[in-house]
Amino acid sequence: MENVGSTSGSGINKYFLKKNLKRDIPSSIVVFLVALPLCLGIALASGAPLFAGLIAGIVGGVVVGAMSGSQLSVSGPAAGLTAIVLGAIASLGSYQVFLLAVVLAGAIQMVLGLIKAGTIGNYFPSSVIEGMLAGIGVLLILKQLPHAIGVDKDYFGDEGFLQKDGDNTFSAILHAVNGLSLAAIVISLLSIAILVFWPKIKKLNTVPAPFLVVILGVGLALAFQGTSYQLRADQMVNIPLFNGWEEFKGLFSTPDFSAIGNKQVWIVGLTIAVVASLETLLGIEAVDKIDPIKRVTPTNRELVAQGFGNMASGMLGGLPMTSVIVRSSANVNAGGRTKMSTIIHGTLLLLSLLFIPKLINMIPLACLAAVLLVTGYKLTRISLFKHMYHKGWDQFVPFVVTVLAVVLTDLLKGVAIGMAFSIFYLLRTNMRNPFFYKVQEEGNKKNIRIKLAEEVSFLNKASIQVLLTNIPKETNVIIDGSNARYIDPDVLETIFNYKHNAYTKGIIVTLEHIKSHYTVPKLNNKIVEEIKS
What we know:
It is a single chain. By secondary structure, the chain is α/β, with parallel strands linked by helices. The chain has helices spanning 14-45, 50-67, 82-92, 95-114, 126-148, 169-178, 182-197, 209-224, 244-249, 263-290, 299-316, 325-333, 340-355, 357-360, 365-379, 382-390, 393-408, 411-432, 461-469, 489-501, 525-532, and strands spanning 75-77, 321-323, 435-442, 445-452, 455-456, 475-480, 486-487, 508-512. A 4-stranded mixed β-sheet has the order 3-4-6-8, with helices on one face. Helix 1 (14-45) runs antiparallel to helix 2 and helix 7 runs antiparallel to helix 8.
């Protein structure tokens, strides 16, 4: 495994930063190019000013990136919050009042982090997280195909199955085929070819392939100008333009604190905090899965960082944010190694807005779609499906169900459905493994020894009951609890009732090391101290 230095304690050492900047700077450019249209598209879909999406992207990169314990996660405005934001702005009647709800959401997230609520992220099964990543990969491919062939009527950041224009993921592709653009197709195909083959040429791959893709896209867009294949304005990146400092200051909004007593503001704030926290924990878990160095992000620290970021974004007039899988995946696939990639991407968003908005607006969406198409393929590669299949049905079924559910609904609903299937298989496994038994024959009598597992919960009651009911007459049964640290009261009742009634079948039941009452086992104090240290 590659040694990239220590990331523990207060931060990253200087050697670690310097050693990895050669990877982080190119990857930050890729993330910047991917994040730019996503920030604008999500703001548009949310019914908020376009500038609000850029503020969230800048704060997510610079502020959250600096505070977070994650080295590869990228935060910014999330498509999963668009419906909540759109409805909240309408119900609260003012964008400034909505900003107050964003500030409150950030404060609630910080509290959640301080009370250690981030540990909930540890309870998402690996099969579901892998399925979520693969689902996002499929979704990226399906969603970016229209942009790759030049149809950009829907916004660039749409990640839901049902779109605001009435189309869904599949119908949008069918409609796009009827309105394709030759120029966009040429740009997309050449961009994909560069992204696939350029890194394989060792003498040339010091120049990042995505950076080359953008240069190619701008060059081809200029070459097609004045012809019948010229790209339209809606096929290009579109950063808000301003003239002078006064116009720039006018782009910012501030929260209306006079609405602090409005109950609806608190409800919206709590809703945003809960949904944003769940998306963040899912995103962090997913990014840790694809981190080539396999680092583990402190989830409670992440909630505090996200909370502070949302407070800052709300104070400046920006949208709420989460850890975003699409941008984070692009960061990993572009070779990012430390949080400097995230911080630099946020800085580039700010600098591009201030100094080169006209140049940025010359970038075709088709070449950015190509970057996301390749990222999507890497997330949902065929080898991943084969790998999950070989792990067994209890892993493969929740994985595939999560993939389909994410594609056909949205991120949170898809994960919830995948979790339901994963829990089903977990319960089935627990029900089948509460004990093992051994049969010995002595003359005409059978001796059966049933040895209970270390933990016997109420979920095991049904399987134990079935086993005991099917024991033949005239049998000696020994139920051994010597390994059991805990036996649920319902199971104990079943065992004692069976012992009491078994004589009617000529069955003699002996209980060994089974107490009449068990308490839930606690961690050894020494172990607890070791964990804390």
